[in-house]
Each structure stands twice: as structure tokens, then as C-alpha cells.
């Protein structure tokens, strides 16, 4: 989700995650359906509203054992493992 939010293309995301381009397209489509978003921009906005995006601050807090310090969401699995 974070790679998508940064504006990377499906092909770039596929290379980062070591999966196929079509796999990324299907996952993005599934996410849009699940979060009821009508496009990639709307998907990013919805994910942000729901707290689904990692932030460096939250990641540091989780690494330090203080998951509640940055919003209480704790660690999330990478997009490739969901």
C-alpha cells in the first residue's frame, strides 16, 4: 500500500515486491473494491483515513517496542504478505 501511495507505477511496485505486474494490478483492484475507492488517488486517501499506511515515525516506535506511541496501530504485515 505504501509503494502505491508514493506514486509508483504497477510495474515499479512489482519489481520492488518481486511479483508480476498483473499480480499488482489485481491486488490494487481488489483493494479498491474492498475499500470502496473509485481510483488510485481515492484508494490512497481512503487508506490514509483508515490508518493503513506506514509512517517512519510509527515504524520507529514499533521497532523500539512502543507501538502505541505513534497511533496505536502496531506493526502491519507488508502488502506482499496480506
Short description:
With 82 residues, the chain is an all-alpha fold. The protein is built from five helices and no strands. Helix 2 packs across helix 3.
Beta-strand percentage range: under 5%
Sum up the overall morphology in one term.
Answer: globular
Provide the residue-averaged pLDDT: 77
What is the share of helical residues? 40-55%
Structural class: mainly alpha
Tell me the distance between the termini. Answer: 10 Å
Number of strands: 0
Give me the number of helical elements.
5
Return the string of H and E elements.
Answer: HHHHH
Sheet with the most strands? none
Identify low-pLDDT runs. Answer: 57-64, 66-76
Radius of gyration: 13 Å
Amino acid at each position: 500500500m505504501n509503494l502505491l501511495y508514493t506514486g509508483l507505477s504497477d510495474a515499479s511496485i512489482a519489481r520492488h515486491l518481486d511479483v508480476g505486474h498483473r499480480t499488482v494490478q489485481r491486488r490494487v483492484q481488489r483493494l479498491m473494491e474492498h475499500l470502496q475507492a473509485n481510483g488510485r488517488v481515492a484508494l490512497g486517501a481512503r487508506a490514509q483515513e483508515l490508518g493503513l499506511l506506514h509512517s517512519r515515525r510509527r515504524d520507529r516506535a514499533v521497532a523500539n517496542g512502543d507501538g502505541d506511541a505513534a497511533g496505536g496501530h502496531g506493526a502491519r504485515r507488508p502488502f506482499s504478505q496480506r
